[in-house]
Amino acid sequence: MSFINGLRSSLLAGAVMACGLAQAAIPTSLSEKVGKLAADQQPELEKVFRQLHANPELAFDLHDTSALVAKRLKKLGYQVHTGIAETGLAAVLKNGDGPVIMFRSDMDALPVKEESGLSYASKKQVELDDGSTRYVSHACGHDSHTAWLLGIAKVMMETRDAWSGTLVLVGQPAEELIAGAQAMVDDGLYDKVPKPSLLISAHVYPVWPAGTVAVKAGRRMAGSDQLDVHLTGIGGHGSRPEGTIDPVVMGARAVMAYQTIVSRNIPAQDPAVLTVGAMQVGETHNVIPETGTLKLNLRWFDKGVRQTMLDAIERETQGIAVAAGVPEERKPTITMLGYAEPVINEPALAEKANATLVGALGKKRIMPGIPPVMGSEDFPMLVAGIDDAETLFVEVGGGAPDVMKKYMSTGELPPLNHNPKFRIENPGLVITTAVQANSALLLDAFLAGNAD
After folding, report:
1. Which domains does the chain have, with CATH numbers?
2. Confidence of residue 447 (pLDDT cuts 50, 70, 90)
3. Which of 18, 49, 269, 278 fits a 20 to 30 Å CA distance from 81?
4. According to the 3-state scheme, what is the secondary structure of the chain?
């Protein structure tokens, strides 16, 4: 089923799903307090959002963003650890005995020139390592994610008489590279903070109206790999190709060979994507280069499917090199870069979360969730090596009030994440809703953990 048809089916099923939900575990009085604390912060958090939106930063280079977040968390009374994976941070609030619960927000932007038309749109350009410049913008909503992390921090601090345990808030770099979460773990995150039993993360999408949220059970986002295939040939003059082994030709053959890996190696019922996003080889017209690089991206839900793709890439690449006459000492190499496991909401946890969200927001503000997508999120890597740790993924609406009505009548969607025209409608409401919803989920997790 396509994303479009899947979204249409999800919309039609949403009302049925919401009607059967149980009531929230947290007391009504506490839920009301959370709602007020979230609403009271709206003007300040929207101000933070606009500041971040106009001043985006890429990947691991989040110095200003991280400093802003760290300063505010310290002022709230959190113990803040900075400089994790360069510009990542983790804030800890110890509040007696109980479970350790973690909430993560990603903070990085994209190398995209913004065309949203917003008065506070990013005009920023940055210089890359190779000397080139790129426009930068928050075309995926991580500015809102960063703002609601601060809002959640205040709610949890102000309600600490109602819960006990340890809260860990993570501000993560380089999600867009599918690398930041693992980099934080590798850089000693758990030497600084305790390991959680539950990790929650949330993401904004313009396909639902601002003021709504969704937690859908099952597969949400695909696992992903980023890898570089390095080709080495023998360079020479463009007029004498017979005296060379041409990596341009090897690269072209490899790109075409890779296109049949999914269609001829993966069962049709198993989702998989293999994309060659870049081919970097050669510099001028009359020189056959010595080397070239292909940049690949894989998407998958099953680890067996992932391994089949990796094995086939190795086999096809080496076969092309042998056919071209590449000597053993120059055979292709593969460098594995970013990796993330699939995002999956366990049904029991999703059902419990939805009951909490109904109590916190009301049934009308709970959406059915988008169909599974082949896009990826790396936050599960924060707990990938922790036995019995659970993850929960929350979808936050960021669209216009009539976005669903318009879609159902015309099939037209607003510009989606990573589009130059991407924008969050009513960001203050979006952030406030995320603060209220995720704070309620955290409180419910702490209360349930203590009850156990």
Report:
1. 3-222+342-451 (3.40.630.10), 223-339 (3.30.70.360)
2. very high
3. 49
4. CCHHHHHHHHHHHHHHHHHCCCCCCCCHHHHHHHHHHHHHCHHHHHHHHHHHHHCCCECCCCHHHHHHHHHHHHHHCCEEEEEECCCEEEEEEEECCCCEEEEEEECCEECCCCCCCCCCCCCCEEECCCCCEEECECCCCHHHHHHHHHHHHHHHHHCCCCCCEEEEEEEECCCCCCCHHHHHHHCCHHHHCCCCCEEEEEEEEEEEECCCEECCCEEEECEEEEEEEEEECECEECCCHHHCECHHHHHHHHHHHHHHHHHHHCCCCCCEEEEEEEEEECCCCCEECCEEEEEEEEEECCHHHHHHHHHHHHHHHHHHHHHHCCCHHHCCEEEEEEEECCEEECHHHHHHHHHHHHHHHCHHHECCCCCCECCCCCHHHHCCCCCCCEEEEEEEEEECCCHHHHHHHHCCCCCCCCCCCCCCCCHHHHHHHHHHHHHHHHHHHHHHHHHC
